[in-house]
Amino acid sequence: MALILDTNAISAVADHDPAVVAILAHADEMSLPVLAIGEYRYGISQSRHKARYESWLEGLILDCRVLDVDEGTTRQYAGIRLELRSLGKPIPTNDLWIAALCRQHGLSLLSRDRHFDFVPGIQRVNW
After folding, report:
1. pTM of the entire predicted model
2. pLDDT of residue 105
């Protein structure tokens, strides 16, 4: 199984969460949305262990495929935003982009955020 890691999944990996480690042990490929990398960097920028987490993150990035937003992503983003609006189920903007990357690449999302469950065509893997 190939997975996209949401920001909370990146944090769980950094904390060596046994449930996440077990899921990732069975993953064929891990992908990181550039948006989640930005969110994680923002979070660690406020940590007193910033240098250690930055170094760890650089290693994770080398082990993963980084997914950037492109023109194809914008089409998925617009579709998802319209779908969620019609359902009355808005989600945070960065998560819209992450969901768009999931649909664009046909990948499951490792996340604890249940609002992804409202996005048609997204399979969320919880731990």
Report:
1. 0.94
2. 98
Q: For residue 117, give both structure tokens.
A: 């469950």
- CATH architecture classification, 2-125: 3-Layer(aba) Sandwich (3.40)
Q: What is the pLDDT of residues 19-67, one digit of tens each?
A: 999 999 999 999 999 999 999 999 999 999 999 999 999 999 999 999 9
| Distance between CA atoms of residues 38 and 6, nearest Å | 11
Closest CA to 127 of 17, 3, 7: 17
Residues 12, 18, 20, 25: is their CA dihedral positive or negative? Answer: positive
d(Cα 125, Cα 113) in Å, to the nearest integer? 10
- For the record, the structure tokens of 29 come out as 């490929």
| Other beta carbons less than 10 A from residue 88's beta carbon | 7
Sketch the domain layout of the chain as residue ranges. Answer: 2-125
